[in-house]
Hints:
Layout: E1 7-11, H1 18-28, E2 32-37, H2 45-50, E3 56-61, H3 67-70, E4 74-77, H4 86-93, E5 98-99, H5 101-108, E6 113-117, H6 122-135, E7 140-144, E8 162-166, H7 169-173, E9 184-187, H8 195-198, H9 201-213, E10 220-223, H10 228-231, E11 240-241, H11 258-273, H12 278-287, E12 296-301, E13 304-308, H13 315-324, E14 329-334, H14 343-352, E15 355-359, H15 363-373, E16 379-381, H16 385-395, E17 401-404, H17 417-436
Parallel strand pairs: 1-2, 1-4, 2-3, 4-5, 6-8, 6-9, 7-8, 9-10, 10-11, 13-17, 14-15, 14-17, 15-16
Antiparallel strand pairs: 12-13
Amino acid sequence: MSFQHQRVTIMGLGHFGGGLAVARWMARRGAVVTVTDVADETALADAMAELRNEPIAAWHLGGHQRKDFRDADLVVVNPAVRPNNSYLAIARRLATPLSSETELFLRACPAPVIGVTGSAGKSTTAAMTHAILRADGRRVWLGGNIGHSLLEDLERIRPQDWVVLELSSFQLRHLMLEVHMPRVAVVTNCFPNHLDWHGSYDRYVAAKQRILTGQTPDDLAVLGWKDTESGSWSRQVRGHLLTLVDEAAIPPLGVPGKHNRHNAVCAATAAAGVGCARESIRSALASFRALSQRLEPLETIAGRRFVNDSTATTPESTVAALQTVDGPVWLLAGGSDKGINLEPLAMAVIELARGAAFFGATGGVLRDRVAALAPDFPCTAVVTMGEALDWCWQRSSRGDCILLSPACASHDQFQNFRQRGEHFAELLGALYRRHRR
């Protein structure tokens, strides 16, 4: 694909490499690339350093400029940008094509794609599917929302390979209608999430269903196991709806929790649908281990176990974590508000946790929800994760578990969930050093 002399505006570099990959990919194909971002040079210093040897025509940071959208031949949008953004409206009025890193990849990818989406479990399901295909002897690539752009790998991807692509609702919402969706579409589940971004639950559902409605009659689909919402989407399926494999075919897993058996069923069904052997499915799932920051065991300090579940950005994910972790649990939760109902989470915290420290923008709301339901339940609202950790540490005992499972997005205090989880690990390092003396 050549973009020789085309004026391409890259709107938002992001934190997971997609914007970087697009900027590099476009520049190397002859495009006149302008990178624009609301973040300033200080915040984007690392990203700029990675692109210092690329022929980037212009950097417009600390805010956008109308001319970058008025004069462009193509605007490539970061998934985090809301569809109603006023700068995108400028491009639309002028009929300037809009695209995204995901769309560029899907249009150019020579290999069949298995796409995985859902409100929770999509990263683990995508990684499980990738592991099964590898165990079956396939040459397979893993990328997308899981944190790795495959755009720059396109020249090495062969038609006989397979690609497993995790897709968020943001990525799906930005895809143009004419884009052909993955050959195999997997939907793990669907419940209210990112309503602050989408504006309503109906719009969020429509974004998720895009992975199904963009398929052809020859494609395959997997709908979530024991999930009422996504399980009811059979009318949205344009291809063949695969029958879920029997749970009895799933071996004992190295990752805990009923939700991970759900993920395994979805992955096994997709893999079986493309012809993977039963033994490949069983062996890959039996040896599969948890992804980083997904119920990841960390230190044990003074008899207390610490678990990092920073990827839990929905109440449902945190409830699953509380149901999975053994022993009395002290919960650290909170973050930015996504416009979803937090009361079911408060009820689960009361039922499943010994106590909870809520931090960040939703800290006070969560504490008030819990206090209204159970005035004597041990909980507090603080500003920082460090304060929340100290509160739980002081009240916990040997044999207890202190669990970071925020149930909220991270953007009030951190760049992303990864930085949040890394900060938790740093706090534990300091705690370990204090109590080792």
